[in-house]
């Protein structure tokens, strides 16, 4: 394969082809964006002429090494998703980079990112990373001058010249899902993280997030977190963290974790959406102070009763399909929610009766959709009035 620019070809090595023909791609030397997805690139080279490039996409290729990017200092977006890269390297000159996607590679360590001080979004999904590191502040110390008092050999003085690189303080979105991480750690200096995704790892405890004062989305699906009702010590630890950290969460997502009941969110009054699908939740308790909730997801859990949610007057969505609800008591709570629009209640014991749908629609005059199907014309409903 080769890249042709105004009559000059910048050669890029491709995979061996039976017909020995080259695939020539015309590229404007003033291009701001370049997408070479699935072009079977085996090496990054020949891009030196791109002096204005801001976005470079090299997804789904055969790249084994990050190289040949030193001159592309104008890059703000670099996508190397789904290659064969084993190491993060040769990125130090890309100081304007804001988004970096290295998902679906073979990376085993987070490293060599300290120069990317403008980085806001980092994707490292589905690699072989076992530890969160390389994102914290890096400190370098150099001895500039040493004096030794010969008369008093027990006394000496050292003058240090200390240089500190800026941490990745602008990092807002960090995705480390589907790796081998066992502990949440080394995020203390990344205080501007808003969205943190650590799903499908081996994490057993929620910890070391105290400095993430701006976090809004915390996603921990498919880990090994074992905070259960009988584990009072672990439960107390979670309560302590959630209350003292002052994290302004707006969303919590946990899937496929053995929670028996959710506790410790009562002080997070800014919460708007909670996603708890595919856990072992048995109770809706712990939501008493979350008056700003709009979406509440309990799909695929072990709920046998719904209570303590009638005060959630801003709730628009209540999802509780595939639980163990045996009676119609849930409607005593839901009927009190004036903005309720979408409800999932199918595949519960009580919903197996023949007239379930007709009765549910009658008991909830404010909803427009039941179990994904429209049941009323939204235009015919009066706007709710909160007293």
TrEMBL record:
Pfam family, one: LRR_4
GO cellular component, as recorded: cilium
Keywords, alphabetical: Leucine-rich repeat, Nucleus, Repeat
Listed SMART domains: LRR_SD22, LRR_TYP
Subcellular location: Nucleus
Family from the record: Belongs to the SDS22 family.
Protein's name according to its UniProt entry: Leucine Rich repeat-containing domain protein
SUPFAM superfamilies found in the cross-reference section: L domain-like
């Amino acid at each position: 394969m080769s890249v042709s620019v105004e009559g000059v070809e910048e050669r890029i090595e491709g995979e061996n082809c039976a017909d020995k023909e080259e695939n020539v791609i015309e590229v404007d030397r003033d291009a701001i964006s370049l997408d070479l997805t699935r072009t079977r690139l085996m090496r990054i080279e020949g891009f030196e002429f791109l002096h204005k490039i801001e976005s470079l996409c090299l997804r789904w290729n055969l790249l084994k090494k990050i190289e040949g990017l030193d001159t592309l200092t104008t890059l703000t977006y670099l996508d190397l998703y789904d290659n064969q890269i084993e190491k993060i390297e040769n990125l130090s000159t890309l100081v304007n980079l804001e988004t970096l996607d290295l998902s679906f590679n073979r990376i085993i360590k987070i490293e060599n990112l300290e120069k990317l001080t403008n980085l806001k979004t980092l994707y490292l999904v589905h690699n072989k990373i076992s530890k969160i590191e390389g994102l914290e502040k890096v400190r370098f110390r150099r001895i500039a001058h040493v004096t030794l008092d010969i008369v008093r050999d027990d006394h000496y003085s050292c003058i240090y010249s200390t240089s500190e690189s800026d941490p990745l303080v602008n990092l807002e979105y960090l995705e480390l899902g589907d790796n081998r991480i066992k502990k949440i750690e080394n995020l203390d200096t990344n205080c501007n993280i808003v969205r943190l995704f650590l799903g499908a790892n081996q994490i057993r405890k929620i910890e070391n997030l105290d400095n993430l004062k701006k976090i809004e989305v915390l996603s921990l699906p498919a880990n090994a977190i074992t905070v259960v009702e009988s584990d009072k010590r672990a439960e107390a630890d979670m309560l302590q963290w959630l209350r003292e950290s002052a994290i302004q969460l707006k969303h919590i997502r946990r899937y496929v974790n053995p929670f028996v009941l959710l506790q410790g969110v009562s002080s997070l009054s800014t919460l708007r959406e909670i996603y708890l699908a595919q856990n072992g939740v048995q109770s809706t308790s712990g939501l008493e102070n979350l008056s700003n909730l709009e979406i509440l997801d309990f799909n695929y859990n072990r709920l046998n009763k719904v209570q303590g949610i009638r005060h959630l007057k801003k709730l628009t969505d209540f999802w509780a399909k595939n639980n163990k609800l045996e009676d119609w008591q849930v409607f005593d709570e839901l009927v009190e929610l004036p903005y309720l629009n979408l409800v999932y209640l199918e595949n519960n014991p009580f919903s197996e009766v023949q007239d379930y749908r007709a009765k549910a629609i009658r008991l909830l005059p404010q909803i427009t959709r039941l179990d994904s199907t429209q049941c009323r014309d939204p235009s015919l409903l009066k706007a709710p009035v909160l007293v």
